[in-house]
Amino acid sequence: MKAIRRLTVRPVLPDPLRPLSELARNLRWSWHAETRDLFQSVDPECWAAAGRDPVRLLGTVGPGRLAELAEDRRFLRRLTAAADDLDYYMTGDRWYQAQTAKLPAAVAYFSPEFGITAALPQYSGGLGILAGDHLKAASDLGVPLIGVGLLYRHGYFRQSLSRDGWQQEHYPVLDPNELPLSLLEEPDGTPAQVVLALPGGRELRARIWQAQVGRVPLLLLDSDVEENDLGERGVTDRLYGGGSEHRLLQEMLLGIGGVRAVRTYCRLTGHPAPEVFHTNEGHAGFLGLERIAELCADGLEFDPALEAVRAGTVFTTHTPVPAGIDRFDRELVARHFGPGAELPGIDVERVLRLGMETYPGGEPNLFNMAVMGLRLAQRANGVSLLHGGVSREMFSGLWPGFDADEVPITSVTNGVHAPTWVAPEVLRLGARQIGAQRTEDALTVGGSDRWDAVADIPAEDIWELRRTLREQLVTEVRTRLRASWRQRGAGTAELGWIDGVLDPDVLTIGFARRVPSYKRLTLMLRDRDRLMELLLHPERPVQIVVAGKAHPADDGGKRLVQELVRFADDPRVRHRIVFLPDYGMAMAQKLYPGCDIWLNNPLRPLEACGTSGMKAALNGCLNLSVLDGWWDEWYQPDFGWAIPTADGSGTDADRRDAIEAAALYDLLEQRVAPRFYERGRSGLPDRWIEMVRQTLSLLGPKVLAGRMVREYVDRLYAPAAAAHRAMDADAARDLAAWKARLRAAWHGVSVDHVETSAAPPTAELGTTLGLRVRVRLGDLGPDDVEVQAVSGRVDTEDRITDADTVPLKPSGGPDLEGRWVYEGPLALDRTGPFGYTVRILPAHPRLASAAELGLVALPSQDLVEAAGLLMR
């Protein structure tokens, strides 16, 4: 019989066990091994059945066992120690509190998904896992972050396979009362809500659930409330589900509703109001509009409010391709704003102008969420050094007249939260070497360039650790593979072969990620005969574990999954290659440590960062990857291999895949497998173990989320907070008026004449030339601009590369024709082809970048031909 109603019955814990409830509700247990061990000891069988989720565990343990534990002195001592440790963690000073700089009182961090733990399935892939690691690292460092997202009642889909290997999606319903969440309540006990206005007089209401991620509160908005109509209740049904209007409503709720949720949370708890708002990808971009509306309601005009909001906003882009950005039809956005809808006090045209693609190559009828994010943020970044360059190129249309490398988008390379992703066995080895506290500090705060203590770990201990982790992965794979085949309809009698799948002494390769086409899941299948030879080599076999989900609407991705599954089903190789469905955090935490090689073969440069290889590296797994994302930045032959890239303009996609697949096979056959199986005098693979050491000691400190968050604090949050504090109403009005005056007068700005003290075709290194420039400033004055000499080497088309800029100083003017004279030195400080030009830029002390307005005056082509200096 089917129940007509479902409810959650919570256990009543005996008084001595009450601290268990607080330990379960704080998600620090997801990365704190001692707390997890405590919960496991409550009831090991229930712990496994509950999916290692303390909240579910406490809901299933019988009263008899609880009464027994309440009398168990040893357990109570461990419980008291765990509760005291959590209290110290929550209240004690950490890295952030020890800084002398004036840092933000609080930072609001918005993301459409958060991967904290498998017990809270609110993530689909790398963006969400990165956001979860950001929150955890902020907690470890003591950064006063408030996370903001949506609570999806179906989460992301669960994946299984049909008998013929086709991906199937399932959407289990999540009950928030069964999750590690609590409702944010008003003083009278009613649930706190945020309300958005919809066209036609309708409303979208959402409750605010709170997850406690260590020291960081995570606010999740849930539209499945009785006051909403059926359509509005479904706004937060699925992550990345539905059509355009559904996605727009999700992003309005995340951005606008999210700011209102933060205000409500701060009002109810006394938490300091955020001085910095950080939007993780464009999905939350509407948060800037809500903050503008707040300031306008306090009497500030739109333009000054825009400047005030920009000062304290940080925008992070994660996509290297325009197709990865949410874009909405202009009319759809217009319908949801203005009179009779949301933010009625703001002119709809002002809203639209923030997101329209009004630049060369853009589609003027589309509203682009990333473009809005960039226009509403004074500081922006990509997520690796290479991705920063790709982003500057991709968005350069917003800053016409500037070279791509001057586009004001910096980069902070992603990191991963080591306590979440490092296997307990690796942690124990570190603790044995340098002590538990030093190990914890090294993995959370970081700060050192090298982990030199790794050099002192005996080679046999490293090799034994690697085999133990590989053996655990083999066990995990067999369990999951058997469950998958049962779901595919196989009977027990058919599955005896699974007991021989994988071998704990064979070189093990891992490949797990989302399955868009650019990640090339099936590149390894390009030459199947050659792959079979690798898998079945009599002396140096390899084995491969593959996992990944295709987007539910991506039939092309599903076909790639099916192609891989069908190959892995072949009886000749199924003991050497497996596909595991339903890739998620729980699987990943076994997969990364257990692999010897982490394979990554995207189309370069379409991988923004690719953090899975970082998680593998922290467990002593070596990377074999295309030079994309973070690997392009930090690769060294000491700790991995680079797959060559065939990205010449004359190479079509099919030929590129063929070339790069052949290079992959060559590396595995000739370099990777021989090194793994090669034995030194001690009987161990000495050269392989040395690469593991180098991976841990040199890569380890770089790939930490603690390093990443410290960079965000120092390079983005602190400057944004300072700009926010300085941008009071008067300063905002002054800056907005100055920008308006500058834009109106810029047509009158020009470079009229350039001359040098000498202009020989060749000159000696170290020579200094005198530059004299006449410029027109129109209605502007010298305080409004900076005149610069830009010099450097030139390429074959006379474009300046690796440019240096030197400000020139006014020496006279205006003359009768309104021209000003600027002068300054030009140092010939490098050999080879050399050139210079002159330009005029806006200048104001409150600009974060001279390119901020996208305005620049350059010499005319006639002037370039008459006065340009090229030295060869």
TrEMBL record:
Residues 13-120 form the DUF3417 domain. It catalyses: [(1->4)-alpha-D-glucosyl](n) + phosphate = [(1->4)-alpha-D-glucosyl](n-1) + alpha-D-glucose 1-phosphate. Its cofactor is pyridoxal 5'-phosphate. It comes from the Bacteria. One of its GO terms (molecular function) is glycogen phosphorylase activity. Its EC number is 2.4.1.1. SUPFAM superfamilies: UDP-Glycosyltransferase/glycogen phosphorylase (SSF53756). Keywords: Allosteric enzyme, Carbohydrate metabolism, Glycosyltransferase, Pyridoxal phosphate, Transferase. The modification N6-(pyridoxal phosphate)lysine is found at K615. Coiled coil: none annotated. InterPro entries: Agluc_phsphrylas, Glyco_trans_35, Glycogen/Maltodextrin_Phosph, Glycogen_phosphorylase_DUF3417, Pyridoxal_P_attach_site. One of its GO terms (biological process) is carbohydrate metabolic process. PANTHER family: GLYCOGEN PHOSPHORYLASE. Phosphorylase is an important allosteric enzyme in carbohydrate metabolism. Enzymes from different sources differ in their regulatory mechanisms and in their natural substrates. However, all known phosphorylases share catalytic and structural properties. Belongs to the glycogen phosphorylase family. This is glycogen phosphorylase. It comes from Streptomyces fumanus.
